[in-house]
Amino acid sequence: MRYHLRIEPPLWRCGLRQNFRIFQQQDIRTISATLLNENGVTEWTPLFYEDHPAREFCVQYGESDLAFLARLWAEEGIFFFERFAADSPEQKLTLCDDVAGLSQAGELPFNPDTSAGAETECVSMFRYEAYVRPSSVQSQDYTFKVPDWPGMYEQQGENLNGQLEQYEIFDYPGRFKDEQHGKDFTLYQMESLRSDAEKATGQSNSPKLWPGTRFTLTGHPQKMLNREWQVVQSILSGDQPQALHGSQGRGTTLGNQLEVIPADRTWRPRLQSKPKVDGPQSAIVTGPAGEEIFCDEHGRVRVQFHWDRYNPATEASSCWVRVSQAWAGPGFGNLAIPRIGQEVIVDFLNGDPDQPIIMGRTYHEDNRSPGSLPGTKTQMTIRSKTYKGSGFNELRFEDATDKEEIYLHAQKNMQVVVLNSKDKRVNYDRTVSIGHDESLVVANDRKVTVEGKQDHKTTKDHVSLTEGNQGLEVKGDLAQKISGALGISVQGDIVLQSDSKISLRVGGSFVVIHSGGVDIKGAKINLNGGGSPGDVILPMRPVILKAAAGSGTMFVAHCPKEDK
């Protein structure tokens, strides 16, 4: 009976779980620790010689934990291997970013004669290979926080060994948003593309050569090959024919097929394809409890994606997400901040799940539109909502036939500033209703023309102050009716002139002045005797008018021509 046994390292478990998950402000060590520990990979160690800064926003998007980690490790220039203890069965996953972290396996001689000294560890076959590979990498990316940042980094390959330098790889976007990541990622990509520019394949009977070890080859007729090498691939094969029933022949043998590269450089894994989001998604705007609007200085908001099972709907549910506006200029344009609880449409720059951007908003069953559809289908509405209140400001256009209307509602105050001219024309009626006071200030001249009749009613006092001259011309009759007294005080002359006559009448007495003379009639006429002059009745004396103008209660003493 034959058995087939497949043994996988603990890291294999990470390939059995697929997820959608967000990591914020975490470095590769922290992300790796979370996923490895959750998958039961407890025996592991990070062996890092380089800095690996935290990532602002990193998304595992429909990938297995293993695929996600492998992608991040490749971006960070990290390779991994299983390290075995020399004096115990202990095995530990090791994450490393420099060749200096590899174990030293000592020297191994080259011995092509496998029939002699089979028990002596050696390398029996060693074939050197050289390949033409890309000679340089130039990568570029963009960040809105520094719009004029070039965001471009270049790395020339080493150990070109005479090959042409024209084979450049230009990569955009480069998966970075800062200088440190830009430099590092470009270097790691260059080294990964040239990781097999020089390599060798070999055959050995040594079981101690596996990925994560270095050894020095000796005794090879090609002197250039007698140097230190690092193992990047190892396939061990063992044969024990005498264990099979009825089998005879040679004893146990061990073969090790190797792939190695020079140990003066660090092997880097190739960049893995990053998953792309197929299209826009919907999400819900989030923020602190009790808050209604939550944004930063760039107008960005936080959201919760429907697939996010780990982050609660709080101010930490996602990174700050930019919001597309209808118009965005330097200090001008359109601005409408999505509010907490609203549903937004989120797209992703270049399909990158790490770069969400809000492209629109939409209503849903619990968040209905203004009006009452479909009854108000002819209306176009812009309605805001009072912050932590029930009021609103609104601009509404009604386009129903023969009912066209523009409606404007201000919940409290309304200001209109016109720096030059303002023209209004109303082809039919105009009604103005003011619930409290009105003040009108004109810095220069004012003209009012009424082509029909004008009615003016003041239910209380009517006071008029003219600090210059006043003229009144009536081309028809002028009639005044005063229920009380009429008082006129003039510091200069009073001139009454008529082309017909002037009449003064009290009861049956009168004085008539006409071109033919003066008629006086009365029950009794007194000259230089009898009677007394009356007092002039002024409801509002000039001194009171001036005081009112100075205090601002009734009149404005000065009107500037421009706002300051």
TrEMBL record:
<dbReference type="InterPro" id="IPR054030">
    <property type="entry name" value="Gp5_Vgr_C"/>
</dbReference>
<dbReference type="Pfam" id="PF04717">
    <property type="entry name" value="Phage_base_V"/>
</dbReference>
<dbReference type="InterPro" id="IPR037026">
    <property type="entry name" value="Vgr_OB-fold_dom_sf"/>
</dbReference>
<dbReference type="Pfam" id="PF22178">
    <property type="entry name" value="Gp5_trimer_C"/>
</dbReference>
<dbReference type="InterPro" id="IPR050708">
    <property type="entry name" value="T6SS_VgrG/RHS"/>
</dbReference>
<comment type="similarity">
    <text>Belongs to the VgrG protein family.</text>
</comment>
<dbReference type="Pfam" id="PF05954">
    <property type="entry name" value="Phage_GPD"/>
</dbReference>
<protein>
    <submittedName>
        <fullName>Type VI secretion system Rhs/Vgr-family protein</fullName>
    </submittedName>
</protein>
<feature type="domain" description="Gp5/Type VI secretion system Vgr C-terminal trimerisation">
    <location>
        <begin position="380"/>
        <end position="486"/>
    </location>
</feature>
<dbReference type="InterPro" id="IPR006533">
    <property type="entry name" value="T6SS_Vgr_RhsGE"/>
</dbReference>
<feature type="domain" description="Gp5/Type VI secretion system Vgr protein OB-fold">
    <location>
        <begin position="297"/>
        <end position="363"/>
    </location>
</feature>
<dbReference type="InterPro" id="IPR017847">
    <property type="entry name" value="T6SS_RhsGE_Vgr_subset"/>
</dbReference>
<dbReference type="InterPro" id="IPR006531">
    <property type="entry name" value="Gp5/Vgr_OB"/>
</dbReference>
